[in-house]
Specification:
- The chain is mostly helical.
- The protein has one domain (about 1-200).
- About 80% of the residues lie in helices and about 0% in strands.
- It has helices at about 1-10, 15-25, 30-45, 50-75, 75-85, 95-115, 125-130, 135-160, 170-200.
- Helix 2 runs antiparallel to helix 3 and helix 3 (about 30-45) runs antiparallel to helix 4.
- The longest helix has about 35 residues, at about 170-200.
- Keywords: Cell membrane, Membrane, Transmembrane, Transmembrane helix.
- This is Inner membrane protein YghB.
- It is a multi-pass membrane protein.
- It holds the Pfam family VTT_dom.
C-alpha cells in the first residue's frame, strides 16, 4: 500500500494528499499514519512544500469528517432514542442511556473531537456522535481542524525527518491503533455484560 500511496502523490501531488485524507476518514484501512509521512518524505525530497502538505492534509481530513457528521445529524438523538426504547433491550440499551451519552457529549464534545482526532483507531468515528448530538457545525469544524492540524503536522514532520524510512511511522502506529480499537471493544463488552447482569438482578 505504501508504494501505491507514494505513486499517487507523485502523479497528483497536493490533490492526491487531499483525496487520500478525505477517503481515510471514510475507509480507516487506508491510514493517515501512512499518507502524511509519505507526503512529508516527498517534501524532504523537494517535490512538495512541507507547510503546504500539512495544510492540504488538514483540509482533506476535515472534509472527510463531514459525511459521517451529516449522517449522525440526519439520524438524530430522538430517532435513536425511539429505536433504543423499541429494540434496545436486546443490547441492554435504553433511550435514557442515549440521552445520558448525548448529555456527556454536549459537555465534553469539543475536547472529545479535538483530542480524539489525535488518537489512531477512533479519530474517524467521532464525527458520528458529534452529528447526533447536533454539535454546531462551525464548532465541530474548528476543533476538527485543530486536532487534524496537530496530527497532520506530527505525521508529516516525522516523514520529513525520517526520509526514506518514513514507513516506520505506520509500522509503529498501526499496531497501536489496533490495540486502541480492541480496548474500546473490550470496554464496550464489559459495559454490556455488567448492564445485562444489573438488569437481570432487577428482574
Amino acid at each position: 500500500m505504501a508504494d501505491w500511496v507514494q505513486n499517487l502523490m507523485d502523479s497528483l501531488g497536493y490533490l492526491g494528499i487531499l483525496l487520500l485524507m478525505i477517503v481515510e476518514n471514510l475507509f480507516p484501512p487506508l491510514p493517515s499514519e501512512l499518507i502524511m509521512p509519505s507526503a512529508g518524505f516527498a517534501a524532504s525530497r523537494g517535490d512538495l512544500n512541507l507547510l503546504a502538505v500539512i495544510a492540504v492534509g488538514t483540509l482533506g481530513s476535515v472534509l472527510g469528517t463531514l459525511p459521517l457528521y451529516y449522517i449522525g445529524r440526519a439520524f438524530g438523538e430522538e430517532r435513536l432514542v425511539q429505536w433504543a426504547d423499541r429494540y434496545g433491550r436486546w443490547l441492554t440499551l435504553s433511550g435514557q442511556d442515549i440521552r445520558r451519552a448525548d448529555d456527556w457529549f454536549d459537555r465534553h464534545g469539543a475536547g472529545a473531537v479535538l483530542f480524539g482526532r489525535l488518537v489512531p483507531g477512533i479519530r474517524s468515528l467521532l464525527s458520528l456522535p458529534a452529528g447526533m448530538s447536533e454539535m454546531p457545525l462551525p464548532k465541530f469544524l474548528l476543533y476538527s481542524a485543530l486536532g487534524s492540524g496537530l496530527w497532520a503536522s506530527a505525521l508529516a514532520g516525522a516523514g520529513y525527518l525520517l526520509g526514506e524510512n518514513y514507513d516506520q511511522v505506520e509500522q509503529y502506529l498501526g499496531p497501536a491503533s489496533k490495540v486502541i480499537v480492541a480496548a474500546v471493544l473490550v470496554a464496550a463488552a464489559v459495559w454490556f455484560l455488567k448492564r445485562r447482569k444489573a438488569l437481570g438482578v432487577r428482574n
